[in-house]
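W.,

You were right to be curious about this one. When I first looked at the sequence I had no strong expectations either way, so I just let the prediction run and decided to look at it fresh. Below is the sequence, 184 residues in total, followed by the output.
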Amino acid sequence: MRTLSLRSALAVLSIVACAPLATPAAASDDSTIMLRVEVNGTGAENAKVKVSLPLSLIEVVVESVDTSHVMRDLKTEKGIDIKKLWRDLKNANVDEFITVEKDSEKVKVYKERDTFRVSIQEDGNDSPNIEVRIPFSIMDYLTESHDDGFKLSEMVAGLKTQFPLTIVEARHDGQNVKVWLEQR
């Protein structure tokens, strides 16, 4: 039961986290950008969830939220300047920041092309079973000044060359969660 709740929470969190990526459904080539989420598992108690939403629907909701204050003062309680931290991380002449290996488990935090990545590979898996990918264009947009608030379609415009884009992918004990954007 705990696994079902965890997977459901992850699916909902993924949808909410991707809401800032909304853009009008009709792109210049009359294609539609879709937010896709799939949660699959084995066993009778595991619900299968499939979400396939045009980002334009999410944008309708997001447009009703005042985004002029979002990410305005990017400092933590301890005074860490998130904008400066992001800029230095992105421009660092290092691609691999953290690697922790213990027995057959491996955690890696690194940059790859235009993406900040975190991967976790647990014992018994030939490849990472949890991966998070944050395109630089998203963080760049979030850390820029926006006096009039965010224009979410501008953020997605920077992602179009990366479609289809997997944002989160997790596999563990026969259960899978995947969150991605694709253009149809």
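Here's what jumped out at me. Strands lie at 33-40, 49-54, 96-102, 105-112, 115-121, 130-135, 165-172, 175-183. And, maybe more interesting for your project: The chain has a mean pLDDT of 76.

Coffee later to discuss?

I.
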